[in-house]
Structures are given as structure tokens and as C-alpha cells.
Write a structure and sequence with these properties.
The chain is an alpha+beta fold. It is about 20% helix and about 40% strand. Strand 9 and strand 10 form a beta hairpin. The structure holds zinc ion (2 copies).
Length: about 260
């Protein structure tokens, strides 16, 4: 560095400069550690295993989120090193946890603490080991949910409302569709209904969309291999508008055309 060179931001001399800016000023102007607005962690409610990239790991872990769950969401600037992160929980509902990570960072030799907000949605799903162990076989699941990811209703009321919608829905369904139901699970965010076969689940999900005004998203995940073929489990997420199923006597859907072909 030539004598008399100064930082173009703070004007100080005698500090190492990169592109004319000292490390302290560069750190002020750089996002050293960031996180996405919203992360998701999927936890098996039975054994605490986490689903990461389609694999289940850490069986036996606590169901409470720890630094091990949160740290992977952090993105660190390539010139910064993270020494330590203290996580502070700032808000918690049954399904969403808000944190601020206080990250001790060193950037070009200058230490500082960066506060990173992170909101994590916690999903419960039985891992394959636990569903096998419980003898609960299924190939598809219908998720009954409220209108948005953020819960607008208390869990108990939401589930009562969704149970009424479900009763109306299965009353419209063909008997062979109903017989494919294996078991169901109450969750903070709604109800999961598990099916021994996928086609009846898809038929009921489509009925809910066409006749009950639900929004439907379908996704598949690799579950394992059987007889040399990949076996997929299919998830149908049904979101019901807020008024649907509210009150004791929901408007009866028209009975005409009750059988919906797929
Ligand atoms: Zn400076
Ligand atoms: Zn499990």
C-alpha cells in the first residue's frame, strides 16, 4: 500500500485496502451471513429423525430444533468465517418457529457479530422406519389443511372443521375409495389421512378439488425399492377455504354426479 492511501468510505489511512475500502467499511457494506425468509424442517414425530434431501437421518434426536437444524440454512460470504452462532427463539407457534441467529464472524481479520433472522416451518411426518414398525402401511397420504401455511385458526378448531369437511367428502366418495383408508394422524397443522392405495387417494383428492373448492397440490417422494422398481409415495395436499366446514350444518354439496372419473 502506498503511503497516504486512504479508505474511500471512512477516509482513514494506514489500513489495508481492497478496492480502496478498508475491511471494517467493507464489512459494514456486505451481507456477511444471510438466511432464507422461511426454512422447512421435517421431523418424524415418533423417533425425531429429520428428512434431509429425501433421506431420513438423526433418528433418536430431540424433536426440539437445535443449532444442527438451523445452521444449514445460513449462507456465509466466501471471505467471512463463522466462529460461533447463538440462536435465540423470538416467537413460536405449533408449526412455525422464529429465531435470530447471533453469528460471530471474522471478515478480512475484522471480527463482528451479525444478527440473522430465520423463520422455520416444522412439518411432522412419520419416517419409513416408524411407519413400518407400527405396521402402518401406506402408499399415499391426503393432507387436510387450512387455506394457508400460516395457521389462522386454533389447531383444535381447525381439525374439527377439517373433520367435518372430510365426513362430507367421504359421504360422496365411492365405497372402494373409502376402504383404501389405512389410518389417520392429527397434527398441529391439520389431519393426515393415509391410504393403502394411491388411485383412491387421488380420486378423493380430485373430488375435494372439484366439489369442495379445495386447492390441490400433488407431490411424490421416493420411498424405497420393491421387486427392482422404485416405489413412490404420493402426497396430496388439500387446502380448504376458511368457511368450508365451519358451523354445525355446512351447505350440503349437490348429490348429482357424485362419481368422479379420474
Ligand atoms: Zn474505511
Ligand atoms: Zn421415525
Amino acid at each position: 500500500m502506498a503511503d497516504g492511501e486512504f479508505c474511500v468510505v471512512c477516509g482513514r489511512t494506514g489500513r489495508p485496502l481492497v478496492d480502496g475500502v478498508c475491511a471494517k467499511c467493507a464489512a459494514d457494506r456486505t451481507a456477511l451471513v444471510t438466511a432464507p425468509l422461511r426454512g422447512t424442517v421435517t421431523v418424524c414425530p415418533h423417533c425425531g429423525a429429520r428428512e434431509v434431501g429425501g433421506q431420513w437421518e438423526r433418528a433418536g434426536a430431540s424433536r426440539v430444533l437445535t443449532a444442527e437444524d438451523l445452521a444449514p440454512f445460513l449462507k456465509v460470504h466466501p471471505d467471512a468465517g463463522v466462529r460461533r452462532v447463538r440462536w435465540e427463539e423470538t416467537n413460536a407457534t405449533a408449526t412455525v418457529r422464529d429465531y435470530v441467529g447471533h453469528a460471530d464472524v471474522v471478515f478480512r481479520g475484522v471480527p463482528r457479530t451479525v444478527d440473522v433472522p430465520l423463520s422455520v416451518r416444522v412439518l411432522s411426518r412419520s419416517c419409513p422406519d416408524c411407519s413400518r414398525a407400527s405396521g402402518r402401511y401406506y402408499t399415499a397420504v391426503i393432507q387436510l389443511r387450512g387455506p394457508t401455511e400460516r395457521r389462522l385458526e386454533r389447531s383444535v378448531e381447525l381439525r374439527a372443521r377439517l373433520a367435518r369437511v372430510w365426513d362430507d367428502l367421504v359421504a360422496e366418495a365411492r365405497p372402494e375409495w373409502r376402504r383404501a383408508v389405512s389410518f389417520d394422524e392429527a397434527l398441529p397443522e391439520g389431519i393426515d389421512v393415509f391410504f393403502k392405495e394411491t388411485l383412491p387417494a387421488r380420486a378423493i383428492a380430485r373430488l375435494a378439488k372439484q366439489r369442495f373448492g379445495a386447492s390441490l397440490t400433488e407431490s411424490a417422494s421416493l420411498f424405497g425399492r420393491k421387486d427392482g422398481h422404485d416405489v413412490y409415495r404420493v402426497t396430496f395436499c388439500l387446502r380448504f377455504p376458511r368457511g368450508m366446514g365451519a358451523g354445525a350444518a355446512p351447505a350440503p354439496p349437490s348429490r348429482s354426479g357424485a362419481s368422479v372419473e379420474q
